[in-house]
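Design a sequence for this backbone.
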């Protein structure tokens, strides 16, 4: 959509186009096979109230991350009240994605989190009262707690306490499917767990050396720390080996000068839906946070026949745990090493500008700040017109689309094709029919100006990359 527009006329057109596209979409047929992953995920669901875990947490030495009935707690240190509310709503969505039922949410206004309990002593009593009143079994804090804060708060509210980081790691563990994804998630969990390893009572201080504890021996907590460190080292070796295979494929694409377009964005913004719309990839689509973790690479081509790849990447979120960024480094490199980033934004979100900021922060962290970016404002069919206008005016290279209905996709594709790196070496050569492979590569990787079939071969005038031009000029 052009930035120079009369808002009243253009937005009337947007609304009318969306209404037409939605009608066509709802009248269409669906390929159920493409959503087999979604059916498989929903075939196994959690049943609340069947836990046999001990009620008194001090009696358990190790406990699984159990999320059934939860109370949310946030600390508002900066920004507007609306931003604090949106952050807690996002935490609720994360908790529901993990399989829990959110019963209550509390926000405290403070200059900074309390170093002992994250929230003040008065608010701790309120949280405890809410836990008892709602019969909750878990408290989730909207931030990363230190080991001391975690233990102190747990002792005071008398139920399990987890933080935002542990919650996101739990969702990743549920949704990882590939061998690499599972290893990356496990590495992130181990890195998170190591400084927080603790026991209840004296459980972790027992010595394990000798029949009667002869000699210094190792305490149980030391043994577990050593085992976790060993496991971390093993996982890093495995991920490094898998990274080699990913790097080899990426180098092969680079060698053949195949441009790469990374589809990045906030979680649940519609990245997988967009990839499916563009390439019929059949990637899992679900209205949930972090529904897909494993990157999907699909080959497609421009209107003039040039081949390029589209990569669907893991979703980002504000305060994305640094353990995940580190563990998923090989996957996130698909973004930093792409030729173009299509940044998908959920226009219907209450604060899409905060989502854009959070995504760009992660992209900067992984070294992708210099990559050309196109903003795709998704869900424009349900975005308030005034918000759509603000986004289009503020973002210079933005396009309104709807991956669900197909609205604006054609315009976005043209923008992507125009932004792809173009071959720079000009050739005007007669290629014998025996070298049809070279003609095919010119079609895939070059920009053809003229093509003429002669008795001796194919005469092509085109722009190609340097390596292909050298091979053709050797003829």
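Sequence:
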């Amino acid at each position: 959509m052009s930035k120079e527009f009369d808002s009243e006329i253009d937005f009337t057109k947007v609304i009318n186009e969306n209404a037409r596209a939605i009608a066509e979409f709802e009248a269409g047929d669906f390929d159920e096979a493409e959503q087999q992953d979604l059916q498989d995920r929903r075939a196994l669901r959690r049943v609340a109230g069947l836990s046999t875990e001990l009620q008194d947490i001090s009696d358990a030495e190790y406990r699984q991350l159990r999320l059934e009935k939860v109370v949310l707690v946030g600390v508002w240190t900066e920004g507007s009240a609306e931003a604090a509310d949106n952050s807690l709503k996002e935490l609720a969505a994360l908790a529901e994605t993990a399989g829990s039922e959110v019963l209550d949410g509390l926000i405290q206004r403070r200059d900074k989190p309390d170093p002992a309990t994250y929230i003040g002593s008065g608010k701790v009593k309120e949280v405890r009262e809410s836990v008892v009143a709602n019969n909750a079994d878990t408290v989730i804090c909207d931030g990363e707690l230190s080991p001391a804060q975690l233990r102190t708060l747990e002792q005071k509210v008398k139920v399990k306490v987890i933080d935002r980081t542990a919650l996101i790691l739990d969702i990743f563990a549920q949704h990882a499917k590939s061998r690499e994804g599972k290893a990356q998630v496990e590495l992130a969990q181990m890195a998170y767990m190591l400084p927080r390893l603790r026991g209840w009572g004296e459980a972790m201080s027992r010595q394990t050396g000798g029949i009667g504890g002869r000699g210094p021996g190792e305490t149980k907590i030391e043994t577990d720390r050593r085992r976790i460190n060993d496991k971390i080292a093993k996982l890093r070796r495995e991920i490094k080996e898998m990274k080699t295979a990913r790097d080899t494929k990426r180098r092969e694409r680079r060698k053949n000068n195949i441009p790469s377009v990374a589809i990045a964005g906030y979680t649940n913004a519609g990245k997988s839906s967009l990839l499916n719309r563009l390439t019929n990839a059949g990637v899992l689509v679900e209205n949930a946070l972090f529904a897909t973790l494993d990157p999907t690479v699909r080959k497609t081509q421009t209107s003039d026949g040039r081949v390029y790849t589209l990569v669907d990447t893991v979703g980002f979120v504000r305060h994305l745990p640094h353990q995940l960024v580190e563990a998923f480094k090989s996957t996130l490199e698909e973004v930093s090493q792409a030729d173009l980033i299509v940044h998908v934004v959920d226009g219907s979100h209450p604060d899409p500008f905060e989502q854009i900021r959070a995504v760009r922060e992660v992209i900067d962290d992984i070294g992708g700040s210099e990559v050309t970016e196109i903003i795709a404002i998704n869900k424009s069919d349900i975005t308030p017109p005034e918000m759509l206008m603000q986004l289009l005016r503020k973002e210079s290279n933005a396009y309104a689309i709807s991956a669900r209905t197909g609205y604006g996709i054609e315009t976005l594709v043209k923008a992507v094709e125009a932004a792809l790196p173009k071959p720079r070496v000009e050739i005007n050569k007669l290629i014998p029919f025996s070298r049809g492979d070279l003609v095919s590569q010119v079609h895939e990787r070059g920009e053809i100006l003229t093509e003429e079939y002669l008795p001796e071969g194919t005469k092509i005038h085109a722009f190609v990359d340097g390596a292909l031009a050298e091979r053709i000029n050797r003829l």
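Residues 220-255 form the longest helix (36 residues).
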